[in-house]
Amino acid sequence: MARPDDRLADQLRPVTIRRGWLTHAEGSVLVEFGGTRVLCAATVQSSVPRWRRDSGLGWVTAEYAMLPRATTTRNDRESVRGKIGGRTHEISRLVGRSLRACVDYKALGENTILLDCDVLEADGGTRTAAITGAYVALADAISWMRDRKMIKTSPLVGSVAAVSVGIVDGEPRLDLCYEEDVAAETDMNVVCTGDGRFVEVQGTAEGQPFDRAELDALLDLAAGGCADLTRIQQEALGS
Amino acid sequence: MARPDDRLADQLRPVTIRRGWLTHAEGSVLVEFGGTRVLCAATVQSSVPRWRRDSGLGWVTAEYAMLPRATTTRNDRESVRGKIGGRTHEISRLVGRSLRACVDYKALGENTILLDCDVLEADGGTRTAAITGAYVALADAISWMRDRKMIKTSPLVGSVAAVSVGIVDGEPRLDLCYEEDVAAETDMNVVCTGDGRFVEVQGTAEGQPFDRAELDALLDLAAGGCADLTRIQQEALGS
Amino acid sequence: MARPDDRLADQLRPVTIRRGWLTHAEGSVLVEFGGTRVLCAATVQSSVPRWRRDSGLGWVTAEYAMLPRATTTRNDRESVRGKIGGRTHEISRLVGRSLRACVDYKALGENTILLDCDVLEADGGTRTAAITGAYVALADAISWMRDRKMIKTSPLVGSVAAVSVGIVDGEPRLDLCYEEDVAAETDMNVVCTGDGRFVEVQGTAEGQPFDRAELDALLDLAAGGCADLTRIQQEALGS
Amino acid sequence: MARPDDRLADQLRPVTIRRGWLTHAEGSVLVEFGGTRVLCAATVQSSVPRWRRDSGLGWVTAEYAMLPRATTTRNDRESVRGKIGGRTHEISRLVGRSLRACVDYKALGENTILLDCDVLEADGGTRTAAITGAYVALADAISWMRDRKMIKTSPLVGSVAAVSVGIVDGEPRLDLCYEEDVAAETDMNVVCTGDGRFVEVQGTAEGQPFDRAELDALLDLAAGGCADLTRIQQEALGS
Amino acid sequence: MARPDDRLADQLRPVTIRRGWLTHAEGSVLVEFGGTRVLCAATVQSSVPRWRRDSGLGWVTAEYAMLPRATTTRNDRESVRGKIGGRTHEISRLVGRSLRACVDYKALGENTILLDCDVLEADGGTRTAAITGAYVALADAISWMRDRKMIKTSPLVGSVAAVSVGIVDGEPRLDLCYEEDVAAETDMNVVCTGDGRFVEVQGTAEGQPFDRAELDALLDLAAGGCADLTRIQQEALGS
Amino acid sequence: MARPDDRLADQLRPVTIRRGWLTHAEGSVLVEFGGTRVLCAATVQSSVPRWRRDSGLGWVTAEYAMLPRATTTRNDRESVRGKIGGRTHEISRLVGRSLRACVDYKALGENTILLDCDVLEADGGTRTAAITGAYVALADAISWMRDRKMIKTSPLVGSVAAVSVGIVDGEPRLDLCYEEDVAAETDMNVVCTGDGRFVEVQGTAEGQPFDRAELDALLDLAAGGCADLTRIQQEALGS
């Protein structure tokens, strides 16, 4: 059965990364994976959380959120409900952890970089788009710090990119859109470094449990997708 | 003393209204007043709040919010702090009240239109940009309802637009940017209907109290600015 | 059509200001505008908010609230609901901003005066009664500080009073009671200094938008009402 | 050692009960025990909590709170802090339980009477003043219901009054003011019915534990004090 | 009418106290009163609350909570509801106050001991079991401090134990199980010191008010029960 | 380098599953993985969440929490902080999702089974112990339903068990204790069905990213561990 947009099983949606979308943020990116649009803003703070003070080490963290009408039907605002939902918490933690995998805390010094990832429109894969875009915003914030002599050497020890994969109609597919995501038996989010190693592997059987062969096929697809995204990130940063 | 962008005292910043910015919302607009960018999304709900049930009347309401890095320095998320601040509450109420001034509840039937106004970037006048853009998103949502035969006649009984005015360096000025807003002795937000009457007048002496002559000068400026914005709204809707 | 209590259109309700209603507060007033009763208590704190420390400047702020049975039907407590509503936030901010218009922060030194305005019974115009009464409590708190040599010169650079006006049955009226407030097409709250200048003008079209002539008539009425209230405040402070 | 106001050990402070202090409430009382002033408002609701529906039985409940400047130093508002403190919860529950002791739920029908007890000024014994005053407001609300034929027979099966007792300087004393309350080794709140039986006995050793003889002396004092208060309540209701 | 488990009116349920139930806590006890099981954990903190700093004095406090399925039907978690209920607040305060009655703050130095009392299973008398068990955990935590030379002399100036009593079917009974608790006309919780004095007496008429003779009978029963519990505590600590 | 308890790299800690630990719950288990102890309680509700009503389908969900002193140093209660942390949310969702993998919603009918997993003591692997224990409590609750004829056939379509694996000192190890968990470069939680397929795979590089060979080794270890746990579950249920 064909994909909704006729892509090949191992093909990404059109991905664009627009740097400098915001005027004030130290780094900012509007990233699009097909119909999914996420605004990633990096803020540099010359301090660290309380538990890290006087360690000489920096910190990187993230907050993920979705505008109420990013989706087909409207979701109530978490600010109005007075609390953050489990899904938001979970993804914020994932984004922060993923970005920390490519940062040398010592080179960062006692500074914090906070990545705000706000989903303006959602069509599947918002968390992986957020990670992929936030890496570029992070890189720009680090350049901003170097320009201002806040740091001497770059704390970036590599890059990270992320993609979703899943089994739909029995077929392993790369970068699911919302329609496929809902129909998937198994859904996996994978974060890789630019040199092809794994930072996060989160696979969930939504319907039938999956066997080792299926898992292997998904990991292969994801590794390929992340390699493509790494190239797109580098092109964006090179321009 | 000249304005930061060399505008005349009675001149608006460049204003753009892009309709259909979101795929799913029943109406959506990205509105820009110079460096201020607000995403306005209209959601149609075929129900009304509990206190209005079985009245045969509809409802229009709004929620305003700001992304954390819309501003020069980052603001904490209200969802993370677990409560909505007074300023957010106040502006949400103002936007809803302003839009209700151009709606016939009976013609709307027992439906609600909710306007989400999210500030992506802030450079002064975010509440007035939100009202001006939300009117266009509201008009689009009403067209959407008519196309689906949810309503027979248009519940729009006019249009609304809003602008800020203030006294800076002793001079009454139209459509203050952030730099002017901070420096203003008096700051006023005015909402007008398309036929030039007033819906809201909110003037505040930030520094020196203002006399009647100054108040009159500000009202004149605002009425002119709203007339310009009404024309821009009509052009956007005509296209 | 006559007013519910047969007043003239430009006549205030009976206004009483009882000073020293509480034993412990540095200043306290029970203010009545007809059936509206507000208890205003001033608390002197020898510190300022964090963002103002080491500036040499003081601060004045306010909190407004309503007892649950101040109104015809009972309102749930905001403490029980776990959050403050938009209306409460909005009025608290208005009261604080209004009082700050008559204070010289430098003469106040690094001290804060906090005005608690609790509505014991509501019959329209609670926010304007709160401002009018809170000014007197503020003046008493400042005398208390001078008696204790906390400050050398008075930080009061004038006085403020507030009143509501509105258009009811097509007629502009001063100081609306609840019954008139509900029926008003346009409702405006105006805060003036003792010398007749404006601090806040907040007009809202509840029903029909209003034109410039109506706005002018309302401003005239309000200026007259505030002048009367200023005299009543001075008599209360003189006794 | 003499009491601060030279009272005898078994003497109440001056107690006044002013009925009808509020215009709208179905029953309302301003009760004073010396410098302690509590506003008690009864609200009649023609419904019962969900867990009691279709039982044919009524309900009586209470909410206790303190204005921020009721005390020598200001307390933050619980609405601002976003949650109700343990002390407030505890006293609200005590007041409701005490009043329920004199009510026949069947005669009340499926109606709720809610007693709001707001402390305007505190000088010790606020919870016992609240109970004593709320009983009178409750009785007035019941008369109001009978006048409107909401109930046929009175659901009041007696009366309740409450007083604090304590051991200060080794001496058992009745109706402690704040200064004595702070100095008390043992502090006890006692709620009695009009016919002299106990509804609540809550004794706490603040300093030294107390022996049975001391407990007996305190109970004797409290029973006497409640008998006096019962007479004052009846006089108030008779007028 | 016989008791559900055929006990005598003045007989405790089987009581067991298992020390050292947790590996990490400075003191820990699993206490059982029949079917009621409470896990009490003592945590030593080398600091005191802000309001007590630089006083040279220590502090003891407690938090009580119930697992959701400790009871016949499940209760929602207070963490999920986002706030602590009145009953939980009230009991936490009672447990803390009771334990403080046997502690010399000066000998404790500027340290805090926090007692967590979590009800794993509830069959009546959870608060009194919590106090009785928490005393033993407290004693163990104090031994732990002495072993580490954090304190020189023991801050324990006695012991505390607690029990519930009530009037069921007209008969005063000791240590009510849940079935009796629900049926009781009067319910009383009593906390005594090891030498037989009272720390807390909290009696409530659930149904009929009680007279002085009934109150005396309940106090006698409670004093006897606490003496038994004191012996069981000492045996547990002696082993 | 040897493991802290001298286990082999592919060896589980001693695992015990005690059924029926609570009297009231429809299923309950105290599960121990070495020093980790989790109390799992199953509650049967004859209703489903609102969004699932009239579907004929049941639901299974879970709530995970930790007692404050389950850990070496005390954690504040989430009920006291007024909100649930991201980690708690994330694990609750994982436990529910894992259990749903072995349930046929149709056979369950419109009933909900809620699993409460409360960590009494934590020494690594609390979420995997929770899943493993909760499965047994779930099976007992289903037997309870069958005994009461609430369901005709068993909705259990298999079993689930979970274990943690990680790379410590460069060596892949099964079932990490806390000391190893803290030291792990990579940490993975794996949930398998009784027939050896995967339900969840959640791998995280805490330090160095991991390559495909390391990932494969961890998956092999986890599959073996889950097979062992499945056997232990079956023995527990067979007894």
Automatic annotation (TrEMBL), chains A, B, C, D, E, F:
Keyword rRNA processing assigned: yes
Claim: rRNA processing is one of the keywords in the record: yes
Signal peptide (from-to): none
Entry EC no(s): 2.7.7.56
Subunit: Homohexameric ring arranged as a trimer of dimers.
Family from the record: Belongs to the RNase PH family.
Function (record text): Phosphorolytic 3'-5' exoribonuclease that plays an important role in tRNA 3'-end maturation. Removes nucleotide residues following the 3'-CCA terminus of tRNAs; can also add nucleotides to the ends of RNA molecules by using nucleoside diphosphates as substrates, but this may not be physiologically important. Probably plays a role in initiation of 16S rRNA degradation (leading to ribosome degradation) during starvation.
Protein name per Swiss-Prot or TrEMBL: Ribonuclease PH
Lineage summary: Bacteria, Bacillati, Actinomycetota, Actinomycetes, Streptosporangiales
